[in-house]
Structures are given as structure tokens and as C-alpha cells.
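Methods: example folding runs. The two proteins below were folded one after another, and each record is reproduced exactly as written to the output file, sequence line first and C-alpha cell line second.
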Amino acid sequence: MKVEFWILDVNYEVVGGVPEVRMWGIDRDGNRVVVVDRSFRPYFYVLAEEGREEDVARRIAALGKKYRLISVEIVDKRYFGRPVKAIKVVCQIPRLVPEFREAAARVKGVREVLEADIRFYMRYMVDNHVYPCAWHEVEAEPLPNRHGWQVDAVYLAKRPPRFLGTDNPPELKVYAFDIECYNSLGEPKPERDPILIIAVRRGGETRLFVAEDKDDSRIIREFVDDMRSFDPDVVVGYNSNRFDWPYILERARRNGVKVNVSRAGGAPAQSVYGHFSIVGRANVDLYDFAEEIHEVKVKTLENVADYLGVRRKDERVIIEGAFIYKYWDDPSLRPTLLQYAKDDVESTYGLAEKFLPFGIQLSSIVGLTLDQVMAASVGNRVEWHLIRQAYE
């Protein structure tokens, strides 16, 4: 059967000794799906001294057992525009490539090892012209959802997807959140200070999860349950990769709460550009977008929201961060703190409405997933665009 789907997130796992690329997305009917491709294998190239290609290929093949080698072949490539003979080394397990690369580099007669530092799922997307935030068609067969993933359907690809285009993205479910923490001793520290409020905006509704005195275990559980119940495609915060997510994860660890909010059932994990990845969803820190608004010098949430016309500063509650604890400790001031948290998360959601269309377009052009494209530096974005164009 043919499945048309829009790619939101891509990752990989090794299952039964076989690497499988998992493409999480949304089909034409609005179903959340994951397409699994088990056909791709990691590889890299070796350049040997001229005339020694056969000898070097044999020496590399001799290393194969230790590094789960699949094949070694001599291929015609171009290097800085000149035709060369290169040795293509194909392996079984992506995580063994860095070790194999180092071992290959030490083989007598090797001049250079190339393309060994490209992440496996990115290599898959580059080689197969697969782009995030774009529509693709794939010939696939349904699979049972044995892992209990939070999706409507699982498919096994018979061949890599075919790129269709970037027009008309599906309607995405967006979930904004923001936390306020106790800070009587200065900068809040998760090993010491509890979360007081977790504010959430989703589906046109604002919710506040409020701690009992200084016990935040219940509200962390409520936050996790609420996110899983809403099942968002995009999770947004403001400075969330640097503050909110590390804080929540540490408080959860100390309270014995599982933050199993990914569509694969796992917790957010720090990834390649320092951002937190939530498998099957796009976790987007809107502060990364705000950093590129040079007209706003002090990039607080209220300043950026005011500049972009999301919410004027004179229409919302503003509290000096250092005094959050005073508003919590004084029952007469606590309603003001709750309104402050509500204004913060509604401003965050409003910024997402402004920024996400740009992020989606940039993701589909550069080829980095939506959660990575703004977390990556401008140089990284340019590099990935050039890598894709060079491969084409």
C-alpha cells in the first residue's frame, strides 16, 4: 500500500542487530504515524595512496569481524572536482563507525577517511532525498504496534520514501509550557528548590498545575499526564532547553516521577545541538528564534512578545524574577503570581504562532528537523544545506 505522510521527527534504533530509521509524522487523514525503514546501513569512504587501493581494501576487510563489516568495495568518486578511486566501507551498526573510522585511518597506505562523521539518520535523509516538514510517499505494509508507541499506525517501508513537496503542512497540535520555581536563596536550583507552578497552553485552553506548599511531585505527574493526553506534535517553551527541561527532569528524578512524554514512551534527552529531543514530537525552544531578532536587545519573554504584537507589556503582569518566592509565600500575593504564570505561557503560545511557520519552512529547506533547525547555529544550517546540495 502507498502512504503519504508529512515528516515531523526522525530517529533510529538498533533492533535485533539491525538499525532501523523511524520517521514520525502525520498522514493525509490527520493520523499520527511512524514509518520504519530497516534497509539502510552506515558507511564511510577511505582514500588510499594512489595505486594501493586493492591492498588497502584487503587490510580494511581484515578488520571487519570486530566492527561488524558488511562490505568493502572500490568505487569511482570525485574529490574537489577530480576523479578518484575511493574505498566504500559499509557496516552493520552505526555506533561502531567512530571506532572503525579510527582503526581504518591507522591502516598502512590510507591517506584520508571521509564522511564518517555524518549521523546515521541524517545520512539516510541525505542519500534518499528525504526532508523533514515535507510530504513524502512510501510503499509500505502495516505493522502491529508492539512497542505501544503513541501513534495511530506503524508501517514498514519497502523502499525509502519519495519526496512530494512542502505545500500545505497539516494542522499541528501545539503545546506550550512554562515553569515558576521557588528561589528564596537566589537563583533556583533543582537539587534544592521545588517547582511551584507549571503553566500549560493547549487547544485554546490555559491550565495551571500548582504545587502543594513546596511539594512538586504531584504537579510534575499531572504535567506528564496532561501532555500525553493532549498528544502534541510540537512542544514549545521559552528558554526551555536551557532551563525548564533540565529543571523538570532533575525535579522528576528526585521525586521518582517518570517523564515519559515522547511518542516512543521515553523521557526528553539532550541531543546534538544541546537541545532536548522528544522522540516523535518536535520540542522547540522559542528563545532560539528570538536570538535572531536584533531589534530587541534584552530578550525577555515579555519584551519579545511586546515587540511582535503578541501581548503588550502594559496588558500583563510582570514580576521581577528574584521575587517569585515572595509572591508564593504571601497568600495575598499568590493570585498575582498565578496570573503572571498564565500570562507567560499565553505569550509563549503566541510566539509559537508567529515563529513556527518560519521554522517549518527553514527545516524543509535546510533538511534539519524542526526541533534542531533553530537550536543549530547558522553555520550548521548552512553546512547541512551545502551537504545536501553537494550530494545532489
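Second run, written to the same file directly after the first:
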Amino acid sequence: MNSLGVIRVNLLIMGPPGAGKGTQAETLAQELQIINISTGDMFREAIRQGTEMGKKAREYMEMGELVPDSVVVGSTRERLSQPDCARGFLLDGFPRTVVQAEALEDMLETMGIVLDGVINIAVPREKLLERLMGRRICRNCGASYHLRYNKPKVENKCDACGGELYQREDDHEDVVRNRLFVYYKQTAPLIGYYFAKGVLREVDGARPIAEIFADLQAAVSGLPVAAPH
């Protein structure tokens, strides 16, 4: 029995790059005993199983092109139709635009599924820049460090293997700023979309991980569907 009780709940979690959304989503799904579905994992599973949608997704990915909304929605439908989603799910990474949100809503309606809540992890832009640009990775073993929050014992050297630490290309300032620009351009309307429907819950993501998770638990507990049964 988890601290929230045994519940069936269908959720969507959102947050900008650097918000820690992936970590929080995985922990929350475990706490609720529901399936955590990220877009990337969903595509990989569909491709592994050789489904029709998986084959279509592979074609676009191998050409280096974005997977069309129709394929993303189709893959999501396939994944949500699987038995392990019967007790509930947590979507992470989809939808990213209002168009995708509308397509998801239509698809869920035809499946007889209700989206119980949408949680947005909000973090100020400057905090996101600090988090993303301060990350360093070991060239040898892949261990991750941060210049402020998780410093190596010896500058530019990995604690585990002594390998050289480097900054990934997508963590450089110009790339990070562009990633955030794209995110806010796509997501601001989406936040408003779910707010208007009365299902949006917002959590302050600029605090320690444990405090953020406590607020995520409180947000889920506040949903009408979350009464233990």
C-alpha cells in the first residue's frame, strides 16, 4: 500500500528541460503503482514489438525527421490499450502542443478514458539555465555531475573512474536557450488549455527534490478521483 492509498488515476506531467520532470515522473508512478509512459520509451517499445505504428515511427526516426502527430497519437493509443495501463498511467512528454492535446483528448474519449489531472512543474528560466549549463559528464563512464549541486572531488575529474569531465553540446548556452525558447513557445498555450479545463495543478520545481515530490503527492491527493478504494 502506498501513502496515497490504492487508486486508479490517469495523469499527464509537464515541465521544461531541467525541471527534473523525468525523475519525478518515475518516482510518482512507482508511488501510485501506475505505468509511467514517456514518448521515447513508447516509441522504443512499439519498434521493439514491430507494431504498425512502431514501423512508421522507425521510418521517420531513421530519416532524422520528427514523427508526425498522427503517428504519435496512434502509438499512444497502442500503448494505453495494453493491459498494464488498466490501473492507470502517467504520460510524460506528450502532448507538447495544443493540437496534440486536442488529438489526445479525442483519442481518449473514443477509448472511454478520462484524463484525471495535469501536473506542471514550473521553474524560473534563470534556474533552468543554471541547472542545464552546469552539468558535466564523464567521457569514460558517463557519470553525471553539476558544477554547483554535485561537484566532483577533483575539478574536471570523475570521482568514480578519474575520467575527464566535459559539457555536452546540448548543454551549451546557445543550445540551452534555444531549447527553452522552443519549450515555452509550444507549452505556454498548452498550460492555458488545461487550466481552462480545470484539470491543471502547478508545482514549484525550484526547490529540493523531496519538497517537489511532496507537492506532487498533494496535487494527486487533491484530485476527486484520488480517494482510496
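Comment on the second run: The longest strand covers residues 9-14.
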